[in-house]
Amino acid sequence: MRAEGCFVIPNPWDAGSTRMWQALGFKALASSSSGFAWTAGQPDYRVSRAAALAHLALLSAAVDLPVNADFEAGFAATPEGVGESVRLAVEAGVAGLSIEDRDIERGRLYDTAAALERLHAARSTIADALLVARTEILLIEPDEIKRATDSLVAFADAGADCLYAPGVRKREDIAAMARAVAPKPLNVLAIDPTMTLAELADLGVRRISVGGSLARVGWAATVAAAREMMDGSFAPLANGMPSKELNGVFAEFVS
Fold first, then answer.
1. DSSP letter at 242?
2. Is the dihedral of CA 18, 224, 44, 178 positive or negative?
3. Quick check: 177 pLDDT over 60?
4. Is 133 contained in some domain?
5. Model pTM score
6. Is residue 241 situated within a structural domain?
7. Confidence of residue 199 (pLDDT cuts 50, 70, 90)
């Protein structure tokens, strides 16, 4: 994490997008669990730990930038399992990772005590890697701002380096959340297209990620073009990025 200021950390989904974001000038990247799952033809949260680790190794090896892993809930049912998973993720090459409080198998959130136990296991295992703690409560109950904020404060006290509650939308809620976790940085998911980097920075946000949004933009354009092809039109193909430009970007990564 930067010592100060606010920055955007885009979320690639394969080696190509990872290298493209570096070529565009981004200084750090974060994986997207959903973006990767879709490239594998699977829904989010259905990718195995082994597949996720292989994906993280691929992204980390593709660029010279720090890569933060969207590591779901740690791919384990127990704190000990979380510790083992995060150790493997760091060995795969990531500079940091996020652990969320979603109990994926049971379709609910872990209670605070259980979430903290899992977070402690991750922290004690990867003392030198960036640990992002995230609560998913706002994706389930959008009005539970206080509960989300209280969870982030508890996560910060437990040793998390960066705090994240995807789903916070209102400016006043974002500002209050940033104040609550300070001096530790708040990550915000960019979900309001009317808000700018400068506005979020003024609210106290330090890091902005986009989750699977860039992947969804790519899927939307591709599916729209394919549908027109089914109707007999090839007009959307004119909007594609030139092969010469793509080859030029990726040639820079070939030794």
1. P
2. positive
3. yes
4. yes
5. 0.94
6. no
7. very high
